[in-house]
Amino acid sequence: MDSATLRQLQALPLEIKVAKTKLRIREWYEAAGGDVYVSFSGGKDSTVLLHIVRSIYPKVPAVFVDTGLEYPEIREFVKQFDNVKWLKPRMSFLKVIRKYGYPVVSKEQAGYIYDYRHSKSERARHRAWYGDGKGRYKIYEKWKFLVEAPFEISPRCCDVMKKWPANDYYRETGRVSIMGSKAADSLQRKASYLKHGGCNGYDMTRPRSMPLGFWTDQDVLRYLKETGIPYCPVYGDIVEEDGKLATTGVESTGCMFCMFGVHLERPPNRFQQMKLTHPQLYNYCINVLGIGEVLDYMGLPYK
């Protein structure tokens, strides 16, 4: 699949997207002989996905990775669903950041910064700094100051906290995942979606399906609003602003202490909101985990 085809799919009406998504789910389910599960984070995307999957196959299990980084409301919301397997990561977030470093900017940029600071290969360091000559695979100019940061930076958190438990579950059960990820979520997810030909990644090392891959955030919010299915209350209400749907609560319910993408958020950002809504967790995050020091160094607000 190419970018032009993806854009055409993203422009389709929601009802057609739902029909295409159901088709991809059926194809994936049949190819796996029914040995599938829904990767369920409790967020709005995976809530929509679980609703669609179980409208076709009601007995498909869901898997929730209890990282300890979720909003309390997310954990309570997930408890309302039947047939959900809870997994635990091998390490706590505190141990991960002490061993590997903090997740900042994006998974890609954190990886390049880590490579530059720790690689023994001069070639790898050169590529991280200068890229491939086409503006790719390098630390962006605006983030090069982070190579001198007095703290470690790494993208390993997602692997340790989420991917490793999911990989263990796959090896133990043989079940393949159905995920709520979208190509619009990040450049990395878009690249993966295009590389593997769209929704169903049959050729991947750990096969996975992304039947919402061609959806947008607006599609997800519209599906929730039009169907009226329950979603986590931490999002607040779904309202229309300037012709677009938005939530009155948090915009995203990813890991509470993750700093990926915080520089792109309008104030109040996730940490400023956390200070108001979850003051005890905010204090732990900023002062115990040391995230306040990281945000100060990056010049990002959190108070």
Please give a structural write-up.
By secondary structure, the chain is α/β, with parallel strands linked by helices. The protein has 3 domains: 155 residues, HUPs (Rossmann fold); 50 residues, no CATH class; 43 residues, no CATH class. Helices cover 46% and strands 10% of the residues. Helix 6 runs antiparallel to helix 7 and helix 11 packs across helix 12. 36% of the residues are buried.
Major sheet size, sense and barrel closure: 6 strands, mixed
CATH architecture of the largest domain: 3-Layer(aba) Sandwich
CATH superfamily of the largest domain: HUPs
- As a percent range, the share of strand residues is 5-15%
Count structural domains: 3
Please tell me the overall pLDDT.
93
Choose one word for the global shape. Answer: globular
Helical fraction: 40-55%
Instruction: Give, in order, the helices and strands.
Output: HHEHEHEHEHHHEHEEHEEEHHH
Radius of gyration: 20 Å
**What name does CATH use for the topology of the largest domain?**
Rossmann fold
How many helices? The count is: 13
Strand order of the largest sheet: 3-2-1-5-7-6
* Uncertain residue segments: none
- The quaternary organization reads as single chain
CATH class of the largest domain: Alpha Beta
Terminal CA distance: 44 Å
Structural class: alpha/beta
Work out the number of β strands: 10
Give the topology.
Elements: H1 3-10, H2 14-31, E1 36-39, H3 44-56, E2 62-65, H4 72-78, E3 84-87, H5 93-99, E4 104-105, H6 107-118, H7 122-130, H8 156-173, E5 176-178, H9 187-195, E6 200-201, E7 208-209, H10 217-227, E8 238-241, E9 244-247, E10 259-260, H11 270-277, H12 279-288, H13 291-298
Parallel strand pairs: 1-2, 1-5, 2-3, 4-10, 5-7
Antiparallel strand pairs: 6-7, 8-9
